[in-house]
Amino acid sequence: MSSRVYGNWRRPRSAGMWGFGTLELAILFGGVCFAVLVTLRRGLLFGVAAVVVVLVVVVPMRFRDRYGRHVWQAVLGRVAWRLGRARGQGLYVSGPLARVGYGTCRLPGLAAGIEALDALDGLGRPFALLWHRATDEATVVIETAADGAALLDDSEVDDRVATWGTWLAGLSYVAGLVGASVTVEAAPGTGARLRREVQSHLVPDAPAFALEVMAGIVDSYPTGSASISCRVALTWSMAGRLGRRARGIEEMAVDIGHQLPHLTRSLAGTGAGPGLPMGVGELAAAIRVAYEPGTHAWVEDGGDLAHTVAWHDCGPRHQQEHRGHLVHDGACSITWEMGQAPRGLVLSSVLAPVLRPHPKLARKRVTLLYRPHDPATSAAVVERDFRNVAFTKTNEKGLGAATRLALEQARATADEEARGAGLTRFAMLVTATVGDESQLEEAAGLVEELGLSARMALRRCWGTQGASFSAALPLGIVLASHLAVPEFVRELA
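and the corresponding structure tokens:
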């Protein structure tokens, strides 16, 4: 029996001609009309100058790199980085001698306005409710115990993948939910958890041989092992929608608390194991380790004591953002984004090379970002995408292989959506952390090779390392909510 394959994901495209999108065509035609008016009022020379200006603005938009970014996006990104660096925005210092909130170590950048509140779900379990003040959103983080696909039959793996797809599709029916993320973090294991578990089960009158065997296991088993954590973050919007008024953080705590038991229970069939909502202390400890990897051993050895980290002290003492990497509390990190999803048909294990631990990387964090469309929007998106591809096809002199494949994929997506399938936007961030800057280039080569082995293109987040690092943490940050350009404008490009 052949293994099941997956694919047919595509990036919706706007209608256009001559390689331009809808936005570029609108600018071009608007500029031509403006040039005609200038010619009529000021003469031919001024009209020609207006045409030249329009071409200088529009023609660079025609040329795009392998990730779909045109020339102006690259240029403006570099200019914005230089302006921010000139203003001192790349340096963050906290602690008793800094100017950040009462001598504390708060989170920097996109996460600076996040507050953590204690709440209870429908089963009486405590959980941390993260309040994103800047965007009026609320997040809850679920810790899972994913056991991987080892020793599983192909049919069982396929069932788990299908259940995960069903779980993601079900998020589109959750009122107000605007984003979800899955963060898988791998680091060298310390053996502290195994030691605590074994010691808690030892009895004083146990045979000496049994005690010696267990002591040997505790001493030798953690050597070369890895500590892997998997966390799912769900983010709701607090804004009013569909005739409902905006909700306060107390109402969000009650509403989300009622939904959490079902959301955690339904994760079990996906291979994630039993999901438990994270409390403020343990989530703060996880974020503290991400910024200061040297505290990992303390968190592992401290047990419940380590989960008492205060939220306002889980950030870094020092953070310096460079264009291609980030320096923070005795460590250096590089973050990549998924520039291009794996092409063609892939197996369910396609991301395994990127997810598994690597002995030369102190910490590696892979975050999958999801933004589900609601059912009404899904139908509109797939229909618009199919019409845009069909329009492009009718304006081509010859039907190229890329356009033919895009048309087939758009038609298949529309058919699946009509049968009830969900539509979800997805992205991925990969963060590698090492001990010092001398190891950065080696780490960069290793991660990019892992991306190639997973059949996808990883693009280094030049000029946005601080924001990308924060977005890759299990904080439920929805990047689209922080962008200045409206989403409908970006979709026209």
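(Above: one complete record from the training split.) DSSP finds 15 helices and 13 strands in the chain.
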